[in-house]
Specification:
single chain; alpha+beta; Glutaredoxin; 4-stranded mixed sheet; two-stranded antiparallel sheet; globular
Length: 111
C-alpha cells in the first residue's frame, strides 16, 4: 500500500520540472536556507514551483522520509531529488546546477 503523503509528494515532483519544498513562500521565506535557495533559482532565471511545508504538516514530515534527507529546503529537478541549499550553492558555483536544469528542460521564468 502506498503512503498517501508520499503519493502526493510524488505527484508534485513529477508534475513540475523544478520544485522547491521550502519554509514560507518565494516572497516571504521563513528561514535563511529557503531564502538562499529561492535566490539561486531566481538568479538562474528558471520557472519553478514551491511548496510551503509550514502550511502542511503532513508534507513537512513526509518530504523528509520521501527523500531520506532530514532538512528543508529540498530541490527536485526532473522528478529527482537534488539537495538542500548548501548543495544548491555548491552546484550553482560550479555551474552544475545550470547544466542539470538545461538537461531537465527547465523553462525560463516569465518575469
Amino acid at each position: 500500500m502506498t503512503d498517501p503523503v508520499h503519493a502526493r509528494i510524488s505527484e508534485i515532483v513529477t508534475a513540475n520540472p523544478v520544485v522547491l519544498f521550502m519554509k514560507g513562500t518565494p516572497f516571504f521565506p521563513q528561514c535563511g536556507f529557503s531564502s538562499t535557495a529561492i535566490a539561486i533559482l531566481e538568479r538562474l532565471g528558471v520557472a519553478f514551483e514551491t511548496v510551503d511545508v509550514l502550511a502542511d504538516m503532513e508534507i513537512r514530515q513526509g518530504i523528509k522520509s520521501y527523500s531520506e534527507w532530514p532538512t528543508i529546503p529540498q530541490l527536485y529537478i526532473g522528478g529527482e531529488f537534488v539537495g538542500g541549499s548548501d548543495i544548491m550553492m555548491e552546484m550553482y558555483q560550479a555551474g552544475e546546477l545550470t547544466d542539470l536544469l538545461k538537461e531537465a528542460g527547465a523553462q525560463p521564468s516569465a518575469s
